[in-house]
Amino acid sequence: MQLRYLTANDWALLRSKSRRVTYKPREIIIAINSRPTSMFMVVSGNAVVEVVRGTPVAKLGGGEIFGEMAFIENAAASASVVAETEMVVDVLDLGVLGELFTNFPHLEARFFKSLALLLSQRLRSTLARMSKPVAST
After folding, report:
1. Of 64, 102, 111, 112, which has the fewest Cβ atoms less than 10 A away?
2. How many domains does the chain contain in total?
3. Reported pTM
């Protein structure tokens, strides 16, 4: 899973509080500028992240999470997430996540440390893609 510092018990707790949802291909899971009320953990299938409709800027697959930026910033989504294939996703409502953090402060620390690492890795990956020279025609 993408949240490296979470323990097996942390994952079991998060899964026990989430609900499993299936999305069809091309179904919008998060719409740009919406205010997501959940974070998502991909169980199976693939999604694309789009800032402009039909133009993917990233892909998401099994084991990845999304909706974390809107969660951290308590802000509107900066991109849309659209199912590319049929997807099964564990959905964790942000209010429930907040309650878990209140009841399990060590979970909160591990969760945010994991998110910091994940976002750093995603930024490095994006910078590497941007630094590749564009082929001329």
Report:
1. 102
2. 1
3. 0.82
CB burial class (10 A; 0-12, 13-18, 19+) of residue 28?
Answer: middle
Q: Residues of 62-91 as b/e, b for ≥16 C-beta within 10 angstroms?
A: eebbbbbbbbeeeeebebbbbbbeebebbb
In a domain, residue 133? The reply is no
Q: In what order do the strands lie in the sheet with 65-66?
A: 19-23, 87-93, 38-44, 65-66
Q: Is residue 131 part of a domain?
A: no
Residue 79 in 3-state DSSP? Answer: coil
CATH number reported for the structural domain that contains residue 114 in this entry: 2.60.120.10
Query: What tens digit of pLDDT does each residue of 41-75 get?
Result: 999 999 999 988 877 788 999 989 999 988 888 89
Answer yes or no: is 92 within a domain: yes
CA distance 93 to 18: 7
C-alpha span between 69 and 27 (Å, rounded): 20
For 37, the domain range is 8-125
Question: Is residue 136 included in any domain, yes or no?
Answer: no
